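Closing statement on the flavin-adenine dinucleotide sub-project.
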Amino acid sequence: MPSCSRVAVIGAGAAGLAAARELRREGHAPVVFERAAAVGGTWRYDAAEDAADPLGAGGAHSSLYASLRTNLPRESMGFLDFPFVAGRSSADPRRFPGHPEVLRYLEAFARRFDLLGLVRFETEVVSVRRSRDDGAGAAGWRVSYRSRRPDGAGGEPEEEVFDAVVVCNGHFTEPRVAAIAGVHCWPGKQMHSHSYRVPDPFRGQVVMVIGYQPSGMDISRDIAGVAKEVHVAMRSEPPYQMHTTTATGHANLWLHSCTIERAEEDGSLVFQDGSKIKADVVLHCTGYKYNFPFLGDSDDELAGAISVDDNRVGPLYKHVFPPMLAPHVSFIGLPFRTIPFLVFQLQSKWVAGVLSGRLELPSQEAMMRDVDAFYSDMEARGCAKRRTHDLGQGNPFEYEDWVAEQCGLGRMEGWRKGMFVATCKNLADRPDSYRDEWDDDHLLPQAHQDFRKHSY
Ligand code: FAD
C-alpha cells in the first residue's frame, strides 16, 4: 500500500515548486526551504550587479540580465498541465517573453496549486545528514537550517528530521571561469555573466566575451549596441586551434573560433594561434558549476555517496537517485540542454511515486550497473565528464520519454519535441531574430488543442 513521507524540498525555484506539487499530489507532506523571500529562483531578476565580486564567486543572486527573453517558445516551456499561454490580460504576450512574464507564470503556478503555504521563506538549509534511530530520536534525514531574523541577520541553526530530501537548489549561481594564463597581471577587468545586467558599463570599450552558448550569444549582442568592439572567443570542434573570424551582421561584433591562451601585461589577449587583441574587459560566459554545500563533510555518509567531479554529480541513477541513498535522497533539475520545466515535472512525479511505493526502482546494484554503463558509453563516445547531465548528447528526448514512461505517462507530445528542434535550428540560423521570426506555426494548433484539456 502506498505510504506517505514527510519530505524536505530544498529550493522554491521552478524545480522545487514542481516537486512540492507532485509530492503533495501523491499524498506526501512536503516542506520547502527557500533562502530567498519569494518563489521563482532564477526568474527573480536582481538589478544589482555584484560589484564587490564581478566574477561572482559565492553570489547567490539570480543570473538574469535585464534584456533576457526566453530561449524557448512559451508553449513548449510550460508545465504539462499548466500551460504557459498568453491570456487576454498578459503583460507580455510574446511567444518568447521577457523574464518578468516567466516569474509571473511561476507565481501563478504556486498560487494555483496552493504551494506558498508549504514554503519556509528566508530559510537556508545548511546541512543534511543521516539520522540513525539510536532510541533517542527519529531515523531519517536531519536537515539543519537557518532562518533570517527580523533584523536581517542569520538566526541560530535549527534542525528537523524528515523521511526524505529532494534537492532542488538550482545550478546557475556558481560561476565557472575560463583559465587564462597570466590574467592576474593583465590590467583589464574580468566579469562573469552571472554578474552581467545591462550593457551601459561597456560603452566605448573593447570586450572579449568567452563562450557562445545562449548567454554568450545574447550578451555579446546586447553589448555590441554600445561597445567599441566585441569579440567572442569560442571553441570550434575539431580542431580547437583553427582560427576563423566570422562577421555577424553587427559592424563591431566578431566571432573567433579559437580560444584565448594567455593574457599579457600590455592589455593583450593572445589566441591559441598567436594573434592578439587588446581588450578592456573579459566577460566569461562559460557556464556554472553544480554545488551542494549542505551535503555533508568528508566523513559524512552523504558525502561518500554523492560527489561532484568535473561537473559530474554522481553516481546518480538517471540523473535523479544516488543508488546508495535511494529513494530517500533525490535531485531534481540537473539535466541541461532540454526543456527544463517539463523535466522538473517528470522527475518530480517519478520521485513522488517511488517514495510512496507506487513505483519501483531497480536494486542498488542494478542502478550502479546502469550508471557504470552510462559512464562507459560516454567515454567510448569521447564525451567529456562535464557533459554528464547534458541531454543534448545522445538520442533526442530519449531521457524525457523514459522518465515519462516510468510515471505511466505517454511519451512527450510530438508538437513539444518539434518546437524544441525547430527553435534550436532557428537559433543557429537566425541568432539575432529567432525570438521574433520562426517557421513552426504549424505546431501551434495541436499545442493549443492539448492545452484546452486543462482548464486552468
Ligand atoms: P533555481 O531557479 O536556481 O532555483 C533554486 C532555488 O533554490 C533558488 O530559489 C534558491 O534561492 C534556492 N536555494 C539554493 N540553495 C538553497 C539552500 N541551501 N537553502 C534554501 N534554498 C536554497 N529555462 C527555460 O526553460 N527557458 C529559458 O528561456 C531559460 N533561460 C535561462 C536563462 C539564464 C540566464 C539562466 C541562468 C537559466 C535559464 N533557464 C531557462 C534555465 C532555468 O534555470 C530553469 O528554467 C529553472 O528556472 C531552474 O530552476 P531550478 O528550480 O532548478 O533552480
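The chain is about 25% helix and 20% strand. With this model delivered, the sub-project is considered complete and its resources will be redirected to Aim 3.
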